Amino acid sequence: MRITVHPGVDLDVTPGHRLGDLRPELARVTCRPELASAPLVVDGVPLGEDHRVGTRPLLPGATLHAGQQGPPGRTHPTARTQAASASPAPAPEVAALRAAWHVAVLSGSGCGGLLPLSPRAPLVLGDGTGPSVVVTAVVPRRPWGARPREADLLPRVVVRVRGRTGARTAGRRRRAPGPRVRWEPPGRRARGALRGPARPWRPGHVLRVGTTTYDLRPRPHLEEWGVTSGLPAPEGPGPREGLGPSSLALAITPAVGSLALAASMRQPVFALLALVGPLTLVVPLLLARRRRGRSAGALAPVEGRGGSGATAVPPRALPGTERGAPAPGPDAARAPVLGHLLDRARYPQPCPADLMTGAVAAHHAAETSAPAPGVPGGRPRGAGAPPTTPVLGSAPTSAQAPVPVPAPAAQGARLPDGCVAVVGPREPRLAAARALLLAQVASGAEVVAVVPDDLAPCWSWLRWLPGSRRHPSGPLVRERQADRPVRDARVVVVEVPGEDGAPVAGLSAALEDWWARRDGPDRLILVAADGRAVPAWCRTVLDTTAQAWRLADGTVEPAPLVGVGESWAERYARHVAAAHRLGRWPDGTTAEASADRADPAHPGLAESVSLAALLEAPVTPACGPPAAWVGARWDAAGGAPRPGLAVPLGTDAQGGTVHLDLVRDGPHALVSGTTGAGKSELLQSLVLGLALTTSPRDLAITLVDFKGGAGFGRCVHLPHVVGQVTDLEPGLAGRALAGLRAELRRREHVVAEAGARALDDLPAGVLPRLVVVVDEFRALADDLPEFLPGLLRLAAQGRSLGVHLVLATQRPAGAVTADMRANISLRLALRQIDPGDSRDVIDAPHAALIPANRPGRVVLRRGNEPPLAVQGAHAGTLPTTRAARVRPAERWGSVTALAPGPTADPTDVVSLLVDATVEAASRASLPAHAAPWLPALPGRVRPSDLPGRALPGRASRHELPLALSDLPDEQRRGTVVWRPGDGHLAVVGRPRSGRSTALRSVAVAGLDRGWDVHVVAEAADLVEGLRDHPRCGTLVPLHDPRRVARLVDLLLRREGGPPTLVVVDDVEDLRSSLARLPQGAGDGVLGRLLGEGPARGLHVAVAGSSPGLAGLAQRVGPRLVLCSDAVPDDVAHGVPSRFAGRGGRPGRAVWLGPGGPVECQVVVDTFPAPEARAAGDAVPDDAAPDDGAGRGLPLRLLPLPRHAPGAGIPDRPGPPQESDARAGHVVVGLGGDHAGPVHLDVARGALVVGPSGSGRSSALLLLADHARATGRLRAVLSRDDRFERLVRHDGVGTGEAPAGGPAGRRLVTAVGLLPPHEVTAALRSLPQTGLVPGDVVVVDDLDLVAQSSPVEAEVLTELARAGVVLLASASTTAAATAHRGPVAEVRGRQSGLVLAPEERGSGDVFGRSLGTVVDPDGGTPGRAVAVRGGELVPVQVTAPTVVGPPAAAGTIPVPRAGPS
């Protein structure tokens, strides 16, 4: 059964186990160690260690909470109290039904809600868009000292209208339509609001606030409700009967006048006129009394909830009302009734509030042992089936034949034509579809959802409904199976994808096929955007946009808002799951009927039972030699004081083991069952169970098989079998009968010679008991008429001589004689088609009620004891492993769920046990022959060797296969699948053990499933063939920590997108590489990725050589440990001891995941799908951000080039953020995330810093060349001769303006190794050159200029403040320590280049941390960080290309690192 562990982990737990035994598995599966010792609470009730799973309150759908952890080893009562107090509040509907009064939302916003009403918490009703209603439960005054009772709460309604709208018409104000209820403030704070008396809300009257309808209800008796129950609609306020004010005034006025006239006139006769007024009231009173008399015996009004189709139900139709009984009062008219009695409209009208009340009642109501008043058969009121339905718990009579009982219908479950379409906006149509669907669920129908994969999460709440499933598309016609239950009904809900309303071709064809071939009980609910996708045969349509029903006859009826939310639907489904476990859903079975131990359809009966599990047989090699176990069982059975022939038959509805003893319950047995019921398997289990329990010294078996001789399988090789008779050897049956007679005579002589009366009085080992098993004795009787009477004589004499008969047949009618019934008291009936055949065997029709899909289900009857339903044990079924008791629940709706692998051959277990019996009988010390198991794992596994479920087209998108697993306990091969939801993947192993191969398998699986994959690795074989895939993102080596840190930062910033896989190889080296980033920028990068990644859809597969994974071991989930041939090394890496030392070849590993340790072999030779690679061949790194499927391409961070030539950089290339080369922006090189052109804004000045020899003069020359090209260059001061090419060679020190510059403007130059006084003179001449804002002054080594001429250098400061653009270079240390002067002034522009940023102090220049944009290795000439305000961009600075004067045009060769 499925439960939830808080906060949201769904688990499948096997019922019947102690909660204390499941604690370790709960902690391991959920990865929450506290569950192993913390108190566990369900619905506020603490659970003890001995609590059984599947009993209240731990039922399907329950949420298990872990309370505060107490002392280990014991649960203190205080800890239980604290755990209960710390648990969350119960569900709102449960709290509402526990309150004295509650408000039910019948329609509108919050439809289906049940709101508790408490005197300490006023309830505000309304949706916030209109009037709001405050409901207050007022406790009436009681005498002093008397405590108020909860039942005395008198609800009162207080209304506050938050806003009015309207317009004046003809001098009057026309108010907007709405409820006109007078209100009073709920407190003194609203004293200034409109005042009025509080209006009492009488039960039975509805309250409408805007479009929402509310009903006030008292606490219901949950025992009166069933899942199909409903309430009649509340009666609206009618006309007041009796004497009104006008009638009283009409009667009093004449009386007062006549008395006054008699007093004034002194005439007493006038006083008689006072009687005229009272006489006028007699007629109205008589008429009112007559109306009340008629209504008492007439119909009780029951309004249709849709506003049309109003009808009535007679009072005697209500449960508990009989003919001639007094008329029911108001409470009786509001008692729960069957839903179909209220369903009188022409279209479905579900009432979610009643559905929820019925579900909670089925979940929480106490079981009643005595019949309810007025309810035949003891069924709760409103609980479904008619009173004439026979109950299995009662003794059946000959007149009661088991007839199919149709599933009762809840209100709103009747669908016209069997189908209804819901159209409109997505949320309203889904809400309405949920309400319609849950009405079908309440009627017992199973749900089949046909929704595409992208819409399946909206229907995930269906996972709690028993039997619900999902299909993606395709045929909807139910396969006609003979084993389908008689009362099985199905509702198919289909959601048409898309909001355009266009029909889907494949889905439309499937719907048409369904309509043409559907079964009778099948129903359809179609959900679409508009009516274009609705087939023509679906004539009833609910339009949520217009809030109207379009009916088959063309009429349109208003539709109330009865849609429910997804959370409401999930809570309802959880209640239904619990009710199903209790046998209260579907509503054809009551709690009393479900408690009947003879019911073969009891939900507590297991689907299959393993004989080896009941015997605790060691059927796996890890459990020890089975022969020794068999010998021990024989010794224990022989040492019993009164040995018998006990064998486990199966399990009952309570999970207990049912034993059958031929000595005490027999001595003879009769077995009957139709074809396919499991009769031969049951006989095989009986024979094998007897052989495993009793030694050949005490038991001999004779097999008579008239079904071809193969019915007993390997059991014929048991050492107990002394003879076999088949129909293949003519005449053998006669000789066998003669031999049995001789054996009977011999036994008589042995007993007589020993002076004993029976075989039990003889010493052990003198005579073994003889069991004669006859399969298909009817065929034997037809072929050998004398054989069966001879067996019956043996049966009459064989009890005292230790001879036992086990007779089996398919058709008992006519074959079971009176003599057989007299001598055979132990009877077992498997499934029978005719109830008469069932009565021939067990004197009851129960065998005819066994479901056809439950082979091995048997009804046992011992003598005169009542029948007992048992799920028979199957000898060929492997026992369920311990780890399977708690397992993660499968994702609902996973139509691509993993297909089951090859199951074990049923004869394997039988062969193992038979061989063990043979070995034990021969008293050999060696173990039995090896059990059938699969050969060893191959040394090389390719993707084609994996089971078919691992192929990309069949596997789930969230399951990544990486290895072939060996499952010897299940005798099959499997696929090791990493589910990222279980945590990040860790691959641990020594070098050359296959770590990179395992990571490549995961990466290829992610690419094939549409994931974005990023790889951080050095191994070339890991990334081979992945780079060209369109979903492959960044491939970064380990020695590039800057890009690794940048990749993690960008991935953690993203919102949404496809699942992303980050593959990290050699995590220890990567962490060391990240530690080299300056200023600790690499600290915590991997921790952030592993910790914050899952919330962003990031999943990491990390590989390392040490178990600690560089300190990240606690942040990963499943592990793939690559084994070696050294046991200590494997144990140190976390390999369990039983798997340690089995490696030695690359790829041999042990998977440590949620399902326990599994040995596996990693897949090799993995490549992405061919079509994906072909599509990716033509995708460049700078392609448009779309992969052709409507999704953006994954993030690709490219490395910086080692050299950026001046020529070849386009003017406006690269990504959009780098392509805007506006005025004042200079392309300084290639860099950024995409290695594109990087622009630097020099409009306000720029500073180039770096140590000596870093190339800062070359970078400044690049900026100066841009200023020369714009014609704004006015001064150049540099010791580098390369700056001479920026000006004409017409003099030293000064010159005219170059070509293209304004006439009369001088260009000040000081280029070369000039004396200091010439530099000083050049600085002094700058103010006289007429510089204006926007002119450019280039100063190389500004820090040295300011140091040599501090006074003159202040001219540059003033010019920069005046708007002159100052392009300068300086050393890193001088720029970082400058507090004033021209260096500080130009640094304040926050624009420039930091060359050799790995040098200490580089981040202090502009006050920015450069850790994440710096390559720690450095050493690359021209590597810099572009500072653009608050943005830092790594860049490879381009080599400058300076254009000289026209006479000497050309390119000056520039070295990689020019002089500073």
TrEMBL record:
Domain FtsK, residue spans: 655-839
GO terms assigned for molecular function: ATP binding; DNA binding
SMART domains in UniProt: AAA
Superkingdom as given in the UniProt entry: Bacteria
Keywords (A to Z) from UniProt: ATP-binding, Nucleotide-binding
Annotated Basic residues bias: 165-177
Binding site for ATP: G673, T674, T675, G676, A677, G678, K679, S680
Protein name, per record: FtsK domain-containing protein
Low complexity bias (residue ranges): 78-90, 382-411, 1192-1208
Region of interest (Disordered), residue spans: 57-90, 165-197, 295-330, 364-411, 1173-1222
InterPro entries: AAA+_ATPase, FtsK/SpoIIIE/SftA, FtsK_dom, P-loop_NTPase
KW ATP-binding (keyword) present: yes
